[in-house]
Design a protein that fits this description.
2 domains, MetI-like fold, mainly alpha, 0% strand
Amino acid sequence: MMSRHVVARKARAVLRLFLILAVLVVSLFPIYWFATISLKSQKEAFKTPPDWIFVPTFEHYQGLFTGQVDFPLYFANSILIAFASTALALVIGVSAAYSLSRAHFRGRNGILVSVLASRMVPPMLFVIPYYLFFAKYGLIDTRIGLIVVFLQFNLTLAIWSMRAFFDDIPLDLEEAAYIDGASDLQAFVRVVLPLATPGMAATAVLCLILSWNNFVYALLLTQSKAMTAPVAVVIFASHEAAEWGIVAAGAIVLTVPVIFFVFLVRRYLVVGLLGGAIKE
């Protein structure tokens, strides 16, 4: 007969498995529901009770890319703006984070607190200042304008998260590189950055998601040329007869680039999210 210890261990394993499955169902069911709506006709989509087995149709995806709303342009805008703001946030944020991690000077903590405080302010408070500034300098409805806005919010995340990763990298590695004749830049590029790759991957994913899903600024600071895909999807839902099938198709399409990017950096993402490549 099994001991109580073995029975308790197996019971905990079953309970853990049940909890994991419950979390997966709660997390994935909305995606599944949107996917089924995007593959059903308008009549079948809201049939009660719903048909779990049906013949899929791709008319909503076709309407998404061939309808009156220029969704391909807005989808391309989202890709360009999100990836550009993420790349710039990494370039500037990694450099700033490394400086704040290694350099010791008066006011360093004040700079860090100021950077964090800028992110703690509700984003809606910046809408009017941004709009007035962009209107004055002709940045309304421009991709550059949205890149600047998204960059401002992503920089805080990049600086604070990457500083934590740099703090975890021992100074001895850089000092060994200096002994071998490396300059500050060479030690940073050849020693520090490879070790900080997991942190950069995790930071890039978070910045990309924040930029990709940003709706308020994309709605208020664009009109047509620089409109992003999330705003375009809402247009389909704002019609008198809401095209929910196309809205669902748009929601599914919007998840593809982020999933693809996470798949590319999956090797480093788990380590990065756990807190860094090296622990002292």
